[in-house]
Amino acid sequence: MTEQNVTTGVTKVCLAGELSPATVPTCRNVIGKAAAQCPVAVIVDLSDLDRAETRSLRVFAKATLKAQQEWSVPVLLCEPGAEIRRGLETFRTLVAVYDHHWQASLAVRAYVPRWVRQRFAPLPESAADARSLIGQACLDWGLPSLRDTARLVASELASNAIRHAATDFDVMASFTGRYLRIAVRDGSPVMPALVERAPTRSSIMPAGSGRGMRIISAAGSHCGVIRVAEGKTVWVLISADR
Description:
α1 (24-36) runs parallel beside α2 (58-71), α5 packs antiparallel against α6 and α6 (147-165) packs antiparallel against α7. The protein is elongated, with a radius of gyration of 19 Å. By secondary structure, it is an alpha/beta fold. The chain has seven helices and ten strands. α3 links the parallel β4 (75-78) and β5 (96-98). It has helices spanning 24-36, 58-71, 82-88, 101-110, 125-140, 147-165, 211-219; strands spanning 2-4, 10-19, 41-52, 75-78, 96-98, 114-120, 169-175, 179-186, 222-228, 231-239. The strands form two sheets. Strands 1-2-3-4-5 form a five-stranded mixed β-sheet, sandwiched between helices.
């Protein structure tokens, strides 16, 4: 199970069952996908992991390194059983392990993560308010070069939520040091069509034809959509190097 806390920006990954050479790829992919969305941090809960071969535990060291190198996202492990904790000792210089989830959460807060979140009503003026929220975050975080692009993405994401979801929505942003992540979570289960191909040159796209998603795709380095318990989250990453 994977879920992002909209209050803290931390994504929690819960693993269960046995970690073996057969299940290592699944474990690696789950943690990798969570980190690729650039949350404030990824906390991996090991409390329901029953058994694990020592060599299979290497996946946590590799996942931690990859998340840091590619996305600048910290990965923290918590609540391992006694056997798994002993196995992780082999990789103690490569992974961060905490006895309890609250300790891992406290460690994340000590990093002073850059995270903002605000809820808006599905009103036309909310798009401008979302744009202002993200623009101010860019200034607060010393990212003036990303401000215009970030404001555009926030406005388009908010406008899509207002127009198509017609529910209250959360606008969220975080900065990992490598990517600025902007996301909107709304209450509609309808998934947007993510655009991968640019429109025909010189064409004018009418409203409702996917124009907003084309703008978002062009502005960001990566984008995606994930289902959540009560709707969906559409997210965009903007590279700090742009």
